[in-house]
């Protein structure tokens, strides 16, 4: 399950206009979420709250044989209340749990004329995060600071007695201008230095015309519900990049290059994401492919092959969204407006809600609302807020939970069922080894999360 | 004196190498492996070579036909080799990320992808230099302990010799692993092998019932040496002293009382009581006998007075069948109570528990003295035997540090014991002893040992010789007043009680014990030739 603090963390990035996934490290994030999701171990209870717009707390109590826990605090200099729904009883489940995330538009800082009007950067904002694991006395600290519109510094550290030298620290400097993004990092552990970068082209970045087109396309999507004109044409973005690491103390290093093609949210056909990574030093080639096969189903595969050792591996994973049983019959008419909504951005609530609202009022959408990106202005206007909450209720009742499963070449099966009961989010998972049929359950766990 | 060490017969045994390979494979995979090794380590080739190690005898602490204890200096520069096969992770970034916190991980995308390579490592040109403490006894097998880190240098040749940093890493990792193997695992391996060779009946005991052994450790903490003993100054205690403890403590006495020996002892006592001509031979035991009891009392105490009689009577039962072992230093609880000062207790007990073996006064050769004499009224003061170690019955029965007239002074609890003159081993004889003054660990331990001996002896000797009269029955006619079964139950109960006390005492006094036992600094074998022990 996505942790509450991670959810808040991404809300901070959203508030400051930083694109978290425009990074080489996030090239595989879609397939990783489908293939490498974490299955819980033991029992774990999390109590979280956004105590004030700037401050979040989270307490965790776990038991895997022994009882342990953690306390974490997060402070953000930007108020976050407008950007996330902290209440676990009405947080939209796809926001929290969906593995297949479509691409977000890049922030065109290199060419400000291409920027969207709502895309604004907030500089000199910072985020502080600390977490203390109790019986182990391990402390995690994170500081994120936006230095300039294109530059962000991140410093994370772990202190614990069981670690060598008492702890490690990692400094990360990120530079993102939209078309390309660079990162430099340094770690105290082994004196590791790293550099990685990603370059985007094609799709919304290929020309000015496309960029404008993409800015306008959500409106077309919202109204038309999928035009059939350019359905065949694949519309997506290419990203290529590479990384290099060197440990100054242990004289070792690593290198890899990679490429990804992923469809943009405006793509009319099936959303897909394909990546190819290559490690020339170790001879490892990995190809992964993720596709959103249906509105409620995503599939992913990954193949790896090592040209030096001839070792290969594969993994398949899937994600299946489940509707509540009671609503299956009533859902028919809402679903046709939801089809484009699902295939569009994560903020798919916006076009869906708008068309629904427009239908109710027998008028067309207002043009200035079309370009509105975030579901931010929740509180302005009683009418909008009301219709919004209605739509949200529709949406959140649309899904009751999600089932994720993966299988790899060692016949290890991971199953995860996440959902919501009343106002509690739960995550029930197990790791199953199909090769040992007499004792197949390797791990079993349940996580329960409540936030307000 | 000459020793003959055979190096080649080890290799003559066809099964030796396969057995050793199995044991090595098990030992290598037991400890957690470094992250670079991703598969089990398999010992594929193992050869001891033809060049034997050079052994220099530094000291022989104990020598007999069935046991040996000595300290050697070993240097080895032979042609033994060992080939291991495993699979390693060749990507240094992959092992770098292993066991690092995820929070500060640089999260590489594909630079950490793994490349596992089958690897065969040959360890050759092993150079060892070590001080070895070797203890052998037929009952316990061979115990070998390294006093220092034995590994001097070693050549690791592998498939990665061309890559510098991988080779360095392997060399480092393997040396570390091998050090652990030498210091921790190899003694255990050798011990197990020796058990299989010399006492196959005990070989299974150590392997199949490890849980019982751990339970026993809880009861008798001295049966195994402490893990890292230090004295009050923080210096690491001499390992030879530790091995003294473990060997002279409860461990050996327990193993000595095997069923076979006890049956023989029972037969021997029976042969004295009856007219049986069959006297079983018990090896390495000096049988001591004396003609009368009166003259012995005269020797022991110049004035044969009634208080002395009271005292002796108080533990008549226990001395009826006395197994006194000089190396265990086991003194009977009764005599401990009669000691005037605690220092005399320490003077005799310190030898067995924590003492430096070479600082013992007048320590010659260890003799196991079994007093099987049917004694009705006289006392055997065992500390005289344990210290003098000679088998002459005319030796001074009272330690020299002890004033002679002390024996004639009746102590309060002994007077009280007057009512139980004929009764043997009544609770009153023991309970005040334990509770009288704060019992030291040594007293409790020895008392526990005696109780165990006693219980074992009664349990084992009663069955085969029931109709002839067991030694305990013969010990005192009044013994029949208390039924045997009851008595035995009580003894066992008392033993467990004392064991509990010993355990508590041990926990509280662990430091202090080493402190008082360690008068002389531990001898430095390598440096100082004029160590105080020589």
UniProtKB/TrEMBL annotation, chain A:
Membrane topology: Multi-pass membrane protein
Record localization: Mitochondrion outer membrane
Any one GO CC term of the record: SAM complex
GO biological process: establishment of mitochondrion localization; mitochondrial outer membrane translocase complex assembly; mitochondrion-endoplasmic reticulum membrane tethering; phospholipid transport; protein insertion into mitochondrial outer membrane
Pfam families documented for this protein: MDM10
Region (Disordered): 366-393
Keywords, sorted A to Z: Membrane, Mitochondrion, Mitochondrion outer membrane, Transmembrane, Transmembrane beta strand
Bias-annotated ranges (Basic and acidic residues): 366-375
InterPro entries, sorted: Mdm10
Top-level taxon in the UniProt lineage: Eukaryota
Comment text on domains: Lacks alpha-helical transmembrane segments, suggesting that it resides in the membrane via beta-sheet conformations similar to those predicted for other outer membrane proteins and porin.
Protein purpose: Component of the ERMES/MDM complex, which serves as a molecular tether to connect the endoplasmic reticulum and mitochondria. Components of this complex are involved in the control of mitochondrial shape and protein biogenesis and may function in phospholipid exchange. MDM10 is involved in the late assembly steps of the general translocase of the mitochondrial outer membrane (TOM complex). Functions in the TOM40-specific route of the assembly of outer membrane beta-barrel proteins, including the association of TOM40 with the receptor TOM22 and small TOM proteins.
The protein's assembly and partners: Component of the ER-mitochondria encounter structure (ERMES) or MDM complex, composed of MMM1, MDM10, MDM12 and MDM34. Associates with the mitochondrial outer membrane sorting assembly machinery SAM(core) complex.
Protein name: Mitochondrial distribution and morphology protein 10
From TrEMBL, chain B:
Basic residues compositional bias, start-end: 360-374
Keyword line: Lipid transport, Lipid-binding, Membrane, Mitochondrion, Mitochondrion outer membrane, Transmembrane, Transmembrane beta strand, Transport
Stretches with biased composition (Basic and acidic residues): 502-516
Main localization, broad class: membrane
Comp. bias (Polar residues): 332-350, 382-398
Compositionally biased spans, kind Low complexity: 525-534
UniProt KW Nucleus keyword: no
Residue intervals of the SMP-LTD domain: 1-195
Biological processes per GO annotation: mitochondrion organization; mitochondrion-endoplasmic reticulum membrane tethering; phospholipid transport
Pfam families xref list: Mdm34_N
Residue ranges, annotated region (Disordered): 205-228, 326-406, 459-488, 502-534
UniProt keyword annotation of Membrane present: yes
Molecular function terms, GO-annotated: lipid binding
Entry's family note: Belongs to the MDM34 family.
Function: Component of the ERMES/MDM complex, which serves as a molecular tether to connect the endoplasmic reticulum (ER) and mitochondria. Components of this complex are involved in the control of mitochondrial shape and protein biogenesis, and function in nonvesicular lipid trafficking between the ER and mitochondria. MDM34 is required for the interaction of the ER-resident membrane protein MMM1 and the outer mitochondrial membrane-resident beta-barrel protein MDM10.
Assembly: Component of the ER-mitochondria encounter structure (ERMES) or MDM complex, composed of MMM1, MDM10, MDM12 and MDM34.
Protein name: Mitochondrial distribution and morphology protein 34
Organism: Hypocrea jecorina (strain QM6a)
């Amino acid at each position: 399950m996505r942790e509450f603090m991670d959810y808040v963390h991404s809300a901070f990035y959203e508030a400051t206009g930083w694109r978290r996934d425009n990074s080489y490290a996030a090239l595989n994030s879609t397939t990783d979420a489908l293939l490498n999701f974490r299955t819980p171990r033991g029992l774990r209870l999390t109590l979280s709250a956004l105590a004030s717009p700037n401050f979040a707390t989270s307490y965790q109590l776990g038991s895997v044989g022994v009882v342990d826990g953690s306390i974490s605090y997060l402070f953000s200099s930007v108020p976050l209340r407008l950007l996330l729904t902290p209440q676990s009883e009405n947080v939209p489940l796809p926001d929290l749990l969906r593995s297949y995330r479509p691409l977000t538009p890049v922030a065109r800082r290199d060419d400000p004329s291409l920027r969207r009007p709502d895309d604004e950067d907030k500089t000199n904002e910072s985020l502080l995060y600390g977490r203390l694991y109790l019986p182990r006395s391990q402390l995690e600290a994170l500081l994120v600071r936006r230095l300039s519109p294109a530059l962000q510094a991140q410093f994370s550290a772990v202190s614990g007695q069981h670690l060598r030298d008492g702890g490690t620290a990692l400094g990360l400097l990120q530079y993102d201008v939209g078309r390309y993004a660079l990162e430099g990092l340094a770690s105290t552990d082994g004196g590791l230095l790293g550099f990685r970068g990603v370059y985007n082209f094609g799709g919304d970045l290929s020309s000015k015309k496309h960029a404008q087109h993409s800015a306008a396309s959500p409106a077309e999507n919202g109204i038309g519900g999928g035009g059939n004109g350019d359905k065949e044409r694949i519309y997506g973005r290419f990203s290529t990049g590479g990384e290099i690491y060197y440990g100054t103390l242990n004289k070792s290093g690593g290198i890899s290059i990679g490429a990804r093609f992923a469809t943009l949210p405006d793509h009319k056909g099936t959303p897909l994401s394909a990546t190819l990574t290559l490690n020339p030093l170790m001879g490892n080639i990995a190809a992964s492919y993720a596709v959103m096969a249906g509105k409620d189903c995503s599939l992913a595969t990954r193949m790896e092959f090592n040209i030096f050792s001839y070792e290969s591996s594969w993994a398949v994973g899937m994600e299946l969204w489940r509707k509540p049983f009671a609503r299956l019959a009533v859902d028919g008419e809402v679903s046709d407006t939801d089809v484009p909504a699902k295939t569009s951005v994560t903020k798919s609530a916006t076009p869906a809600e708008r068309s629904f609202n427009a239908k109710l009022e027998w008028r067309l959408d207002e043009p200035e609302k079309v370009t509105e990106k975030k579901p931010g202005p929740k509180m302005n206007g009683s009418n909008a807020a009301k219709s919004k909450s209605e739509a949200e209720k529709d949406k959140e009742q649309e899904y009751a939970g999600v089932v994720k499963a993966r299988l790899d070449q060692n016949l290890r099966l991971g199953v995860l069922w996440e959902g919501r009961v009343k106002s509690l989010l739960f995550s029930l998972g197990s790791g199953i080894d199909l090769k040992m049929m007499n004792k197949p359950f390797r791990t079993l766990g349940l996580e329960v999360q409540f936030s307000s | 004196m000459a020793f003959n060490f055979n190096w080649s017969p080890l290799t003559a045994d066809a099964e030796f190498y396969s057995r050793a390979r199995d044991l090595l494979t098990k030992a290598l995979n037991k400890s957690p492996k470094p992250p670079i090794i991703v598969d089990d380590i398999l010992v594929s080739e193992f050869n001891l070579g033809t060049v034997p190690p050079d052994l220099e005898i530094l000291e022989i602490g104990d020598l007999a036909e069935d046991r040996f204890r000595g300290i050697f200096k070993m240097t080895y520069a032979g042609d033994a080799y060992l080939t291991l096969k495993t699979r390693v992770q060749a990507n240094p970034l992959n092992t770098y990320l292993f066991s690092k916190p995820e929070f500060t991980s640089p999260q590489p995308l594909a630079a950490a992808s793994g490349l596992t390579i089958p690897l065969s490592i040959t360890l050759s040109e092993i150079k060892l230099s070590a001080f070895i403490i070797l203890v052998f006894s037929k009952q316990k097998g061979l115990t070998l302990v390294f006093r220092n880190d034995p590994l001097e240098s070693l050549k690791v040749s592998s498939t990665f010799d061309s890559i510098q940093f991988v080779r360095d890493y392997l060399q480092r990792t393997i040396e570390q692993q091998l050090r652990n193997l030498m210091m921790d695992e190899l003694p255990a391996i050798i011990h197990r092998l020796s058990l299989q060779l010399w006492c196959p009946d005990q070989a299974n005991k150590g392997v199949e019932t490890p849980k019982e052994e751990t339970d026993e450790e809880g009861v008798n903490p001295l049966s195994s040496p402490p893990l890292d003993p230090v004295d009050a100054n923080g210096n690491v205690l001499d390992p030879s002293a530790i091995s003294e403890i473990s060997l002279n403590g409860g461990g050996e006495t327990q193993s000595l009382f095997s069923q076979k020996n006890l049956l023989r002892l029972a037969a021997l006592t029976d042969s004295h009581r009856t007219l049986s001509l069959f006297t079983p031979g018990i090896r390495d035991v000096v049988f001591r006998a004396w003609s009368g009891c009166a003259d012995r009392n005269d020797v022991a105490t110049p004035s044969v007075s009634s208080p002395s009689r009271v005292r002796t009577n108080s533990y008549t039962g226990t001395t009826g069948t006395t197994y006194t072992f000089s190396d265990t230093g086991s003194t009977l609880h009764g005599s401990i109570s009669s000691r005037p000062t605690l220092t005399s207790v320490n003077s005799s007990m310190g030898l067995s528990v924590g003492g430096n073996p070479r600082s013992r006064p007048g320590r010659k050769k260890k003799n196991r003295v079994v007093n099987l004499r049917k004694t009705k009224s006289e006392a055997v003061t065992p500390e005289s035997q344990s210290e003098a170690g000679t088998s002459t019955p005319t030796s001074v029965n009272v330690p020299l540090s002890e004033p002679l007239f002390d024996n004639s002074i009746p102590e309060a609890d002994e007077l009280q014991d007057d009512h139980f003159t004929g009764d043997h081993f009544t609770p009153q004889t023991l309970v005040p002893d334990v509770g009288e003054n704060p019992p030291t660990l040594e007293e409790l331990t020895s008392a526990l040992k005696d109780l165990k001996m006693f219980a074992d002896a009664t349990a084992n000797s009663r069955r085969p010789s029931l109709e002839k009269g067991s030694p305990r029955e013969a010990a005192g006619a009044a013994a029949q007043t208390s039924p045997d079964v009851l008595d035995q139950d009580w003894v066992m109960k008392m033993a467990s009680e004392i064991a509990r006390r010993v355990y508590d005492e041990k926990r509280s006094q662990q430091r202090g014990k080493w402190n008082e036992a360690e008068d002389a600094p531990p001898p430095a074998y390598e440096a100082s030739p004029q160590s105080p022990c020589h």
